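FAQ

Q: What does a record look like?
A: Structure on top, sequence underneath. For example:
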């Protein structure tokens, strides 16, 4: 069978039926194999076989293996972002309105609740976990500026860090705020990633109902305690600075 190129992709004679179901099937198979074998270990032929398509179909939809991998990352990121978009937008509005500390803390909690709902209460495909672990560990494909992943990938972190910056009295995107956002949100993400170890330690056979409610209540309590502690530290620091300024004025 002859082939022709179309927009830089090889298209089998007669073309492929351009369907979202076929594309989604390839992405699902790729997430599984990239998670199990890594980027270098997973071949396009194996991905095609698991997706029940001909190997040239991957070039038609994604150009190359790198394109398939980027599509996998974007697919997961978009799914997570869609689940938390309302709470993220609400937090952004409160930041823009210079809302008070408790309002911002509640906005942060809302983001965490939506994230927890996605991780534990929605039907997250099991094959995403290994892929996510490899990606977050830096074992996935590296992206350059021209190959940037969906900007939504960083939105949860950006908004969370912005709230923390405000609560700490720090400039936006300050390294301390980013680190604190990572560590506070890691309460949920680490429990999701190491779910089996956690359930073994707790002698649970599943997470749901009262168990999920307990997990979320404890996480929320720790988050509130941490965020209010940041506000207290900020207020104490600002109070000390005010006293120092007043003392300097007196002695001069």
């Amino acid at each position: 069978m002859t082939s022709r190129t179309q927009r830089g992709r090889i298209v089998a004679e007669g073309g492929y039926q351009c369907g979202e179901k076929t594309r989604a099937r390839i992405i699902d198979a790729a997430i599984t194999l990239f998670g199990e074998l890594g980027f270098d270990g997973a071949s396009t032929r194996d991905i095609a076989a698991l997706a029940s398509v001909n190997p040239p179909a991957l070039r038609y939809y994604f150009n190359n293996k790198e394109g398939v991998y980027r599509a996998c990352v974007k697919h997961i990121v978009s799914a997570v972002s869609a689940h938390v978009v309302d709470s993220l937008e609400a937090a952004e509005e409160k930041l823009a309105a210079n809302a008070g500390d408790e309002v911002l803390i509640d906005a942060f909690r809302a983001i965490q609740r939506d994230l927890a709902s996605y991780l534990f209460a929605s039907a997250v495909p099991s094959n995403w976990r290994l892929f996510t672990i490899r990606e977050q560990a830096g074992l996935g494909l590296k992206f350059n500026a021209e190959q940037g992943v969906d900007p939504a990938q960083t939105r949860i972190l950006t908004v969370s860090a912005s709230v923390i910056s405000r609560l700490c009295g720090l400039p936006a995107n300050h390294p301390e705020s980013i680190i604190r956002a990572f560590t506070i949100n890691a309460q949920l993400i680490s429990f999701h990633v190491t779910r089996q170890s956690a359930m073994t330690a707790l002698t649970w056979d599943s997470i749901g109902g009262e168990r999920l409610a307990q997990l979320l209540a404890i996480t929320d309590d720790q988050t509130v305690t941490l965020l209010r502690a940041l506000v207290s530290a900020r207020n104490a620091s600002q109070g000390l600075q005010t006293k120092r300024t007043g003392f300097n004025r007196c002695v001069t």
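Q: Is there anything notable about this one?
A: The chain has two domains: 3-62, 77-140+150-251.
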